[in-house]
């Protein structure tokens, strides 16, 4: 049956665009109006998707329309009907935008996951490469170990003085001149070589500190105490402390006679005389530090709840306890393998000492980076940051390990 589109209620449907269909059998009600519709006012075709309302309500609404208002309402209904596709288009556009946002969020999540996987791959690859290289250098000892340590010290000191010159630190102090920072980096690199050659470093450090102080006092600009303090700490932190690793590895040359591995070591690679107390102590110390960092990371990820300190918010007490346990356990296990030290109490104390030295060095470098306002000390090692980010746990540990073996173990614990 042919139909006629009529508004159900003028005031309530103009804003919503809802239109109702009236059968032409009821068109007699419209013809009852004093003024019949003109030929130009043809019936408006039904718009697709419109709902049919209660016919009685439509009938009453149509009867209320006066003769002069029927045409006007038809024009309003026509304009609103034409606006309906625009409204539907806006809804479709919003749905498309929402879909695009969802797709972009998924793509960002996938990209972030891919970047994390790539970063982890880089860390593993370069970490293994560094570990193999360092292991070979430690086994070689002598000048190979010393020159390798001197190169690491030079790069680390360069990173330290760059941190000192960063915005976060320079906002509250005056850094040393750039030329003096470079001179200090060279002095720090020479210190391990002098330690191997002379067997001690005290006179060299004192002379270096004197030269740096004179250079600061005689500069053209007004000398500042902050310049002197940061330069002196750089000499101590980057130059003097690493020299104890040379004294530990190369200075303790007494053979580790109880070491089974040393007895089977090839003569072409040094034989049993190559396995000294210094080599065994260095291997145990470095391995304990690696275990401490690994177990602290895994324990913090799995059980970390309580923050350790505000200096490094990611470190937790749970991770610290796990790191301590891993460090002591590694020290005890390796002491059994190397048969050194002979007593059980000594490797336990050695493990505790290595752990506290490593965590203190880590927190010290974290404090410097926090004041500098940077995440990493550099970008030399992909996936790991700078040299200081990798060796911060070893800076103080060498001095503690050497002092423990030299002073507290009679005859080096043999």
Identify the notable features of this structure and list them briefly.
414 residues, mainly alpha, two-stranded antiparallel sheet, 4 strands, transmembrane, EC 2.7.7.41, phospholipid metabolism
Protein described:
Pathway: Phospholipid metabolism; CDP-diacylglycerol biosynthesis; CDP-diacylglycerol from sn-glycerol 3-phosphate: step 3/3; Lipid metabolism. Keywords: Lipid biosynthesis, Lipid metabolism, Membrane, Nucleotidyltransferase, Phospholipid biosynthesis, Phospholipid metabolism, Transferase, Transmembrane, Transmembrane helix. The chain crosses the membrane at residues 124-155, 197-218, 230-248, 275-298, 344-363. It is found in: Membrane. By secondary structure, the chain is mainly alpha-helical. The protein folds into three domains: 3-83, no CATH class; 139-251, no CATH class; 253-414, no CATH class. The chain is built from 16 helices and four strands. It has helices spanning 10-13, 27-31, 55-64, 70-140, 142-164, 167-170, 178-198, 202-217, 225-240, 243-251, 260-263, 277-303, 317-338, 345-372, 387-391, 397-408, and strands spanning 3-6, 20-23, 307-309, 312-316. The strands form two sheets. Strands 1-2 form a two-stranded antiparallel sheet. The chain has a two-stranded antiparallel sheet with strand order 3-4. Helix 4 runs antiparallel to helix 5, helix 7 packs antiparallel against helix 8 and helix 13 (317-338) packs across helix 14. The radius of gyration is 41 Å and the shape is globular.
């Amino acid at each position: 049956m042919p139909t006629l589109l009529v508004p159900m209620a003028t005031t309530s449907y103009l804003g919503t665009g809802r239109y109702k269909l009236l059968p032409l059998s009821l068109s007699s009600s419209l013809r009852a109006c004093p003024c019949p519709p003109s030929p130009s006012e043809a019936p408006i075709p039904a718009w697709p998707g419109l709902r049919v309302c209660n016919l009685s309500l439509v009938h009453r609404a149509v009867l209320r329309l006066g003769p002069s208002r029927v045409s006007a309402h038809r024009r309003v209904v026509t304009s609103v009907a034409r606006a309906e596709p625009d409204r539907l288009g806006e809804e479709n556009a919003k749905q498309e935008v929402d879909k695009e946002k969802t797709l972009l969020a998924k793509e960002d999540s996938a990209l972030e996951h891919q970047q994390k996987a790539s970063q982890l791959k880089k860390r593993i690859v370069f970490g293994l490469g560094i570990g193999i290289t360092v292991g070979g250098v430690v086994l070689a000892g002598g000048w190979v170990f010393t020159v390798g340590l001197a190169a690491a010290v030079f790069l680390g000191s360069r990173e330290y003085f760059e941190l000192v010159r960063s915005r976060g630190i320079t906002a509250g102090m005056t850094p040393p001149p750039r030329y003096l920072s470079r001179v200090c980096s060279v002095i720090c690199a020479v210190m391990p070589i002098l330690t191997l050659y002379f067997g001690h470093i005290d006179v060299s450090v004192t002379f270096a500190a004197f030269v740096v102080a004179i250079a600061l006092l005689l500069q053209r600009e007004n000398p500042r105490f902050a310049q002197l303090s940061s330069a002196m700490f750089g000499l101590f932190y980057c130059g003097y402390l690493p020299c104890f690793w040379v004294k530990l590895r190369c200075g303790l040359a007494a053979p580790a006679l109880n070491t089974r591995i040393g007895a089977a070591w090839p003569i072409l690679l040094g034989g049993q005389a190559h396995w000294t107390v210094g080599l065994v102590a260095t291997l145990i110390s470095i391995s304990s530090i690696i275990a401490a960092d690994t177990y602290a990371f895994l324990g913090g990820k799995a059980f970390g709840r309580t923050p350790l300190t505000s200096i490094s918010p990611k470190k937790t007490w749970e991770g610290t306890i796990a790191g301590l346990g891993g460090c002591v356990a590694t020290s005890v296990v390796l002491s059994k393998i190397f048969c050194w030290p002979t007593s059980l109490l000594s490797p336990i104390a050695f493990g505790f000492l290595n752990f506290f030295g490593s965590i203190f060095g880590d927190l010290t470098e974290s404090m410097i980076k926090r004041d500098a306002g940077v995440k990493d000390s550099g970008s030399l090692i992909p996936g790991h940051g700078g040299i200081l980010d990798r060796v911060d746990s070893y800076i103080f540990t060498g001095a503690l390990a050497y002092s423990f073996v030299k002073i507290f173990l009679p005859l080096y614990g043999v």
